[in-house]
Amino acid sequence: MMTEATSLMEARLRLVKMHFESGVGHLGGNLSSLDAMFVVFRKWKRPADAFILSKGHSAGALYVALWASGRLEESALQTFHADQTLLAGHPPLSGLEDVLFATGSLGHGLSLAAGTALGKKLKKLPQRVACLTSDGEWQEGSTWEALIFAAHHKLNNLKVLVDVNGFQAFGTTEGVSSMADLGKRLAGFDVAVTEVNGHDETEILAALEAEKTSPHIILMRTVKGHGVSFLENRLESHYLPLTEDQFQQASTEISRLS
Prior knowledge:
Number of domains: 1
Mean pLDDT: 95
CATH architecture: 3-Layer(aba) Sandwich
CATH topology: Rossmann fold
């Protein structure tokens, strides 16, 4: 289990190593969203707060963030994607205290988060809920329905982090089904919208800590495959596992990333 001294660079290195050793792809979207989950679990989340990962294929980054914050053992990371593991390719139904829901059927995480936030509000609990979605999920009607619900109930205890890396399974989000300008579209639903650099810990934390009177959407401008030159902004990083040479290069490049 890591200590409070764990850095974001160490978390990135552990993420790449875990995916390489398990022969699993999906590194691009994991590297674009790791910074946000690192901040959530290391700097923002209080014991009774909730976090829901809607873009479930970034489960690797979630597990590493839990490890970096002392919530998950190193021995557990070594079972990633193995038979009978709790650390499946998408967050599991049970077995991990910090994982409230099985997710990965994209477009449903925000509904779960909004319901959780409303429950806490009705019980007058001073607890917060954060949900991390992909930008591609905003092409789905269920996500907008959840937003309408959250805005109607004025869920000011709900933070929605959007990993705006510009890519999804079959191409760019702009090319598959453009939602630009996403910020303007979201703002039309009477919610607070903030845009941040999704690889800047200070900006992410400041947005998370900002108090709002409505649901707060945080659009994080990120790079798919962040920190690894041959993965950055490449559709292949959504799928392909690393070779030995690629793993070594990725580790070297991440170690040099400021």
